[in-house]
Amino acid sequence: MPPKGLRRILAAVLLALALALAGCSSGSGEGKGEKPKKPSKSASPQASPGPGDQTVTLDWKGTKRTYAVHAPPSYAPGRKLPLVIVMHPYPSTGTHVAKLSDFSAKADKENFLAVYPEGVNGGMNALVCCGSEDDVGFLRTITKSLVDTWGADPQRIYATGISNGGDMSFKLAVELSDTFAAIAPVSGGYSGRITDPDTYVPKSPVSVITFIGGDDKWYPVFNAGLTIWQERLKCKEGPPTKLKQKITRTAARCADGSELVAYRLPDMGHSWPQGKSDMAEREAAVNATDLIWDFFKSHPKKAT
């Protein structure tokens, strides 16, 4: 294995190459999202919590922002449910990632809230791109509202997403580590100049499960980012487990008590394993949505 310094230089070179290829997004040109649906009749700055789907609209720093909330049939006021925020790639929509991930169906079976925020102009201001909005602040605001208004359990708040949404998951883990218990980036990574300082890590434990494809042109960047994450958080990785289709699963325990689980799929591109829409790797031997939820429900927020 190359020395630590050489690995970081290699990661920086690979990032520069990836950015040159990508334009402004790790998913640029690949997130063929559907057009946003019109807000439901219940859309309003103050939605009325209840089972089913609602679109909530708010004025965030002078910009109209929306997010869709899916509550399971079992939803009832006063019952604390886990919250999973699912973020779309760039350029795309919450409608697209809802269909791709099928997290609403999972929420119905497992009794949690699934939320799909809309980025501005199809993207979120994540680690590498895409925009200049204060999306960390926006997501802090909506998670607080979901705790206060919908009764989301503050000890079980999670984030996932693909591509730009996966990058954003890492950003939330670092900048809102007091809020999120675990994240699940899919075909996304811990990269970009913002991550250069060794101090750019969670201040409280945030566990990670991630899925990256060997045929993804950004695989070297994503893989290098996982190495740096483990070095900074002093994670000890166990031997890899070999699965079908030459998929490997690695698990690492970190000094702060968090975990990092990584699935590397050698034949997958920039995709969601067993997804149900554009950007899906339908033939993958693992189901990302199922594994993400199993990981989330076993990782409530750790006390610091």
Descriptive account of the structure:
The protein is α/β, with parallel strands linked by helices and 304 residues long. It has one domain (4-210, 218-232, 272-297): Alpha/Beta hydrolase fold, catalytic domain (Rossmann fold). It is 28% helix and 24% strand. It is built from seven helices and 13 strands. Helix 1 packs antiparallel against helix 6 (219-232).
Entry summary:
This protein is an alpha/beta fold and 304 residues long. The chain contains seven helices and 13 strands.
Label this structure with key terms.
single chain, 304 residues, alpha/beta, Rossmann fold, eleven-stranded mixed β-sheet, globular, carbohydrate metabolism, signal, polysaccharide degradation, AB_hydrolase_fold, xylan degradation
